[in-house]
């Protein structure tokens, strides 16, 4: 009986320790929280021409299934009720996942910003914004949304900040030099304490090289205000965004073909290309599934161990009592 109790106690103790480490792993990869804004720059009524134009534009924004580079920009209607919209997905997101993200974001904004002429929502995988003003090719670094990892950086902070800024500046130049379909750069590097750093920067590709560079510079300037000393952060503006972490959060990014030279931007969809789609964020999702699945299986095992221990502890005295009762009957019979 005592041996069984010791074994059960040890198993439960080890289970608690393992569960603690599993929770620590999850804590190192915090969930991304979206942000949205219903900008106070004018309202429309439910039966207005602007609302009809907005609904039409948002319902058709991602209808061009040939677009596989994650950037949608289109407009609909005539002034003063003309609507402009931009949708941008992270460069590694698959085309179908990109359209799904933008579709969900569209429904979200319609529900939460039912009368505002201008609104924007940032998700981990996509950004959608619309306005009654022309937003194509115009750099906008306000409003700013920031989120940081809860864990602090270890080691020399000055050295870390210097290395991070050098890395970000290099990626800024690389992204700004991108074409009209994609302005993005990502890197996997080794930081202080030999820890791996994953970084991604991105602009809406309708920006000029100078505007993309300036937008990212402005966004980088938010780090001391929100995220100084943290091992990871994400900062969004309407025209650009970037993120860095000590864990991978993006997958492979496919190359895109150069755009056709006989198209314009205004009221038509961007030019189609024939490149293969990016592999997207399958790695991130599979990692999440593996971690969650492992924890669920682990919890089930812990519960089974506890139930087994309780059963054995209850059953053992009962077996002894039954044995004594049988022996008593045998003695009486003799």
Description of the molecule:
The chain is an alpha+beta fold. The chain has two domains: 2-26 and 288-333; 31-280, Gnk2 domain, C-X8-C-X2-C motif (Killer Toxin P4, Chain A, 2-Layer Sandwich), CATH 3.30.430.20. It has seven helices and ten strands. The protein has helices at residues 2-27, 49-60, 95-112, 157-176, 209-220, 223-226, 282-333; strands spanning 35-43, 71-76, 83-89, 116-122, 126-131, 145-148, 183-190, 196-203, 233-236, 240-245. Strands 1-4-5-3-2 form a five-stranded antiparallel β-sheet, covered by helices on one side. It has a five-stranded antiparallel β-sheet with strand order 6-9-10-8-7, with helices on one face. Helix 1 (2-27) packs antiparallel against helix 7 and helix 4 runs antiparallel to helix 5.
Question: Per CATH, what is the topology of the largest domain?
Answer: Killer Toxin P4, Chain A
Which regions contain 5 or more consecutive residues with pLDDT less than 50?
Answer: 15-29, 260-295, 324-334
Number of separate domains: 2
At the fourth CATH level, what is the homologous superfamily of the largest domain?
Gnk2 domain, C-X8-C-X2-C motif
Largest sheet: 5 strands, antiparallel
Task: Note the total helix count.
Answer: 7
Q: Judging from the principal axes of the Cα atoms, what is the shape?
A: globular
Helix content: 40-55%
- CATH uppermost class of the largest domain: Alpha Beta
User: What class would the helix/strand composition place it in?
Assistant: alpha+beta
**What would CATH call the architecture of the largest domain?**
2-Layer Sandwich
Strand content: 15-25%
* Record field, number of beta strands: 10
In angstroms, what is the radius of gyration? 28 Å
Element-level helix/strand string = HEHEEHEEEHEEHHEEH
Distance between the termini: 31 Å
Question: Which sequence of strands runs across the widest sheet?
Answer: 1-4-5-3-2
Q: State the oligomer.
A: single chain
């Amino acid at each position: 009986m005592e041996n069984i109790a010791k074994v059960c106690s040890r198993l439960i103790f080890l289970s608690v320790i393992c569960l603690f480490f599993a929770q620590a792993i999850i804590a190192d990869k915090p969930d991304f929280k979206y942000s949205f804004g219903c900008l106070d720059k004018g309202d429309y009524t439910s039966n207005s021409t602007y609302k009809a134009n907005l609904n039409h534009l948002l319902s058709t924004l991602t209808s061009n299934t040939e677009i596989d580079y994650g950037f949608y920009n289109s407009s609909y209607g005539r002034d003063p009720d003309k609507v402009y919209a931009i949708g941008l997905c992270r460069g590694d997101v698959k085309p179908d996942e990109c359209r799904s993200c933008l579709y969900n974001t569209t429904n979200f904004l319609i529900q939460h910003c039912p009368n505002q002429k201008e609104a924007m929502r940032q998700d981990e995988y996509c950004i959608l914004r619309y306005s009654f003003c022309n937003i194509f090719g115009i750099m906008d670094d306000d409003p700013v949304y920031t989120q940081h990892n809860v864990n602090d950086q270890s080691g020399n902070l000055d050295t870390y900040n210097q290395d991070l800024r050098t890395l970000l500046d290099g990626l800024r130049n690389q992204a700004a030099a991108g074409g009209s379909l994609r302005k993005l750069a990502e890197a996997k590097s080794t930081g202080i304490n030999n820890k791996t750093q994953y970084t991604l920067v991105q602009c809406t590709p309708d920006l000029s090289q100078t505007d993309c560079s300036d937008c990212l510079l402005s966004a980088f300037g938010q780090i001391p205000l929100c995220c100084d000393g943290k091992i990871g952060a994400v900062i969004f503006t309407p025209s650009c965004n970037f993120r860095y972490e000590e864990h991978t959060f993006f997958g492979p990014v496919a190359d895109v073909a150069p755009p056709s030279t006989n198209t314009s931007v205004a009221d038509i969809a961007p030019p189609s290309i024939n490149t293969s789609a990016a592999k997207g964020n399958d790695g991130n999702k599979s990692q999440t599934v593996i971690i969650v699945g492992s924890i669920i299986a682990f919890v089930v095992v812990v519960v089974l161990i506890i139930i087994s221990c309780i059963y054995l502890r209850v059953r053992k005295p009962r077996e002894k009592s039954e044995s004594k009762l049988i022996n008593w009957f045998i003695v009486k019979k003799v």
